[in-house]
Amino acid sequence: MSIEAGLDAMGRAAEAAIAYRRAIATAETTPTASYAEMLAAFAAPVPERGAEPAVILDELVTRATPGIRASTAPRFYGWVIGNSHPTGVAADWLTSAWGQNGGNILAAPAASAIEAVAAGWLLDLLGLPAEASVGFVTGATIANFVCLAAARSEMLRRVGWDVEADGLFGAPPLRVLIGADAHATVFSGLKFLGLGAQRVSTIATDEAGRMLPAALEQALAEEGGPAIVIAQSGQINTGASDPFAEIVPLCRAAGAWLHVDGAFGLWAHASPALRPLTAGVEGADSWATDGHKWLQTPYDCGFAIVRDPVAHQRAMAFSASYLPPAADSEREPSAFVPELSRRARGFSTWAMIRQMGRSGIAEMVERCCAIAARIGERLASEPGITVVVPVELNQLILRFGDDDAATLATIAQVQKDAVLFAGASSWRGQWVMRISVSSAATTLEDAEITATAIAAAWRTVSATLS
Ligand SMILES: Cc1ncc(COP(=O)(O)O)c(C=O)c1O
């Protein structure tokens, strides 16, 4: 198989990708073939012989396109998904084409250097301590894991235990205190680290899912060893952030490590207008956030940020005879993440920050929030529709009629109408429709179209109920 044929396939892929993004940017509807249809499209025995790259590419585009979820369409509000912005995608294409192994300075000098620069930019934009270290990981799940590994390392070191060397067998107990409305993936981190997903003290929260400082204070006062407190910026249903200005001093006074899961909510701190929502978050010890959510990078891209680079590296760094150690003045990319070989995520991170700049990021985050607020405002005046929690950031949850069935039926109707995509979530034991506005492609005009389409879907459903 010639190199030229492969290069030709790269060109075809670029053409197909550009055509797709052009079409989806103005798409009026967002239908998607089902998983079963996609299995049927791809199912086949192992090919006995290879094929020409051009044939492979054509097959891939033809078969996969009907089942590509329109996550980059302007009115896609499912989960919390950014736009995989074309500039970030272009940088990511180069990352793949260059074939850089992002784990090591000698193997990838440009990737390592751009990561060091992007790390500094992230700290500056997010208003976090300049001395903190940043690991470029797959997403907030692993960012939480890395930050909690640093927390585990440091809190046990302070009581004379070397967890990296000796593990947890016979270690002094650690306490983990976590808000009642924390994201499910934080518990994965606890599980991976041997801290136990269920061996936690749950701190009560308010109606929007914010940790109650008085409840935290009481829990911190209890005996039981050094504590790790896990707070959050951006509750997955309500967008609420914990009251950091009150929580940080409590953790400091108790000598606890404060970690913040800020997968998307931490980006409020990049906007002067929204910063009051996250006031004080810079006082924490570690932060997890995503690039592939509000920074609009393509998947996969997350950041594990730790105030104490020594604790961060103690938990993650390793050495091998064949890997030259970095000089003191250099930042070794693998020292801050669990993997050695990995994608060089600094390129797309750098490109997206370069694309929007400080003011563009702030404007985009603020625009997403304004859109969520506008949709909520329009729908609040529709009979039978309830905005369940006042919109604080970019998340809006809606209830239709009096019960779960009406809400789920409206979600199904919205998905069938395909003017927008929104999914279901559960909040305080009830099903809700969740609208997450986290794409740079969404406009205020989309807010109007969205509100009209949701109201119409609800009217269709309510007509069948009466
Ligand atoms: C608050 C929060 N934490 C963690 C995660 C997990 O992030 P990722 O899917 O990037 O690993 C999410 C994802 O939506 C989230 O919203």
Helical residues, percent:
40-55%
CATH architecture of the largest domain: 3-Layer(aba) Sandwich
Strand order of the largest sheet: 1-7-6-5-4-2-3
| Rg calc | 23 Å
SSE ordering: HHHHHEHHEHEHEHEEEHHEEHEEH
Task: Give a quick summary of the entry.
With 466 residues, this protein is an alpha/beta fold. 44% of the residues lie in helices and 12% in strands.
Notes on the structure:
This protein has 466 residues and is of the alpha/beta class. The chain folds into 3 domains: 3-66; 92-351, Aspartate Aminotransferase, domain 2 (3-Layer(aba) Sandwich), CATH 3.40.640; 359-465, Aspartate Aminotransferase, domain 1, CATH 3.90.1150.10. The chain has 14 helices and 11 strands. The strands form 2 sheets. A 7-stranded mixed sheet has the order 1-7-6-5-4-2-3, with helices on both faces. It has a 4-stranded antiparallel sheet with strand order 8-9-11-10. α13 crosses α14. The protein is globular and about 65 Å long. The termini are far apart. It binds pyridoxal-5'-phosphate. Pyridoxal-5'-phosphate binds at residues 79-80, 139-141, 183, 185, 232, 234, 236, 261, 263-264, 290, 302.
Descriptive terms for the model:
466 residues; alpha/beta; Aspartate Aminotransferase, domain 2; Aspartate Aminotransferase, domain 1; 3 domains; seven-stranded mixed beta sheet; four-stranded antiparallel beta sheet; 14 helices; 12% strand; binds pyridoxal-5'-phosphate
